[in-house]
Write a structure and sequence with these properties.
The protein is α/β, with parallel strands linked by helices and 387 residues long. The protein has 12 helices and 15 strands.
Length: 387
């Protein structure tokens, strides 16, 4: 496993020291804070983030580390649980930042925690890379709207996601109207719902139902009745997988027979476990496709599955990429310290990871995605999504 993992990280472009795929392991001396949703509603997301980040750190260190100036270094992950709550995420970030040996942050993954942490990271002048937060405001100053200097992401944005989902619904599924059910007081679902509605209508589609619910709702029967009565041709659910599993079941019970369309909040691997029958035939976007015939993807999936016993989801792959990307920033830095690493990150024009090529003209990478479908109890590839 050590040899395979090292070769994987080399394939992703990290300039490890030594020769071949079996150099001496590096001492993990550079502290990186990892903010993950390990408990609470999004615990599956946090565990995937932790798994992917730990595998990347293992690969980097076992590959011989990386050079900053004249010194060889390895990564030491320090993990904090955000408890799937915004306030807890901000507090966890502050604890990590208080440690002068922590030079950068990875995570949180979900926007509900990433948004408050982004403000903390920016004010504290420490680089933050969110693996999975697609919210448009993540990399922008909340007051001025100007780009933040210390906040990056490894995923595409909701603006891009809304455009390709609307286009897919109209061009691929040939739908003329859609219903939307979204969590109104959660930033990611709310923003994705609003952006999809805007894009769908701009393409000539009609939103026949735009229904909201509050966090904690478990009975969606009344809302689903309204959706059924609106007679949509497709139903968009941009909510987190824990809610979607219930909504799929109650939607089918209410008589919905049309396809469901999801967002990247779905975590399809979890939905296949929670609502295997009801999710069948649904469409959703992915940040990569585990079955892609690409060497780096195949090696990553094989190595991850050997270590953790199951296939890696989007969050695991994005967390892996985030750590390796951070290593690239460290290699471009003049010293293993907070400001030089931020400067190093700003020098990176592009990066080839497990989830594909990222081009950095801003802190939001330009990258492709995949449109996927639940089919036969598995995730099937439908089409690629290009910028």
């Amino acid at each position: 496993m050590r040899r395979a993992a090292t070769c994987l990280a080399v394939a992703l472009g990290v300039t490890f020291l030594g020769t071949g795929c079996g150099p001496k392991a590096a001492t993990p001396d550079i502290g990186v804070g990892l903010l993950a949703e390990l408990t609470g509603e999004l615990a599956a997301v946090g565990q995937s983030c932790k798994n992917g980040a730990e595998l990347a750190a293992f690969d980097v260190n076992e590959g011989g580390g990386f050079r900053v100036g004249e010194e060889i270094h390895g990564i030491r992950l320090v993990v904090e649980d955000t408890a799937s709550r915004p306030a807890a995420a901000a507090e966890a970030a502050q604890r990590l930042i208080a440690d002068p040996k922590i030079v950068a942050l990875i995570g949180p993954s979900a926007s509900l925690g990433a948004l408050p942490v982004a403000a903390v990271a920016e004010s504290s002048k420490i680089l933050m890379i969110s693996p999975w937060s697609t919210h448009p405001s993540l990399t922008l100053d909340a007051t001025t709207g100007q780009p933040r200097r210390y906040v990056y992401r490894a995923c595409y944005t909701d603006d891009f996601q809304a455009r390709f989902l609307a286009r897919f619904a109209i061009d691929y599924e040939r739908t003329k109207n859609a219903a939307i059910l979204y969590e109104s007081n959660s930033e990611a679902p709310k923003t994705q719902a609003e952006l999809f509605k805007k894009e769908f209508e701009a393409l000539g589609g009609s939103v026949v139902a735009f229904e909201a619910y509050e966090t904690g709702t478990k009975d969606f029967a009344a809302l689903m009745k309204k959706v059924v009565e609106a007679k949509p041709e497709i139903v968009f659910l941009p909510n987190y997988y824990t809610d979607v599993a219930v909504q799929l079941k109650q939607g089918r019970e209410a008589g919905l027979k049309v396809p469901f369309l999801g967002s990247d909040n779905w975590n399809a691997e979890q939905l296949l476990k929670l609502a295997p029958k009801e999710v069948e035939g649904s469409f959703f976007p992915g940040h990569y496709f585990p079955g892609a015939r690409v060497d780096a993807v195949a090696k990553f999936v094989t190595t991850y599955k050997h270590r953790f016993g199951h296939d890696p989801d989007d969050v695991a792959a994005l967390a892996y990429d985030s750590v390796v990307l951070l290593t690239r920033a460290m290699e471009a830095a003049s010293a293993p310290a907070r400001e030089p690493i931020r400067e190093g990150m700003a020098k990176i024009p592009s990066f080839e990871g497990v989830t594909g090529k990222m081009t950095f003209r801003t802190a939001d990478p330009i990258k492709s995605g995949a449109m996927l479908k639940a089919s036969g109890g598995k995730i099937a590839f439908v089409t690629s999504i290009d910028p």
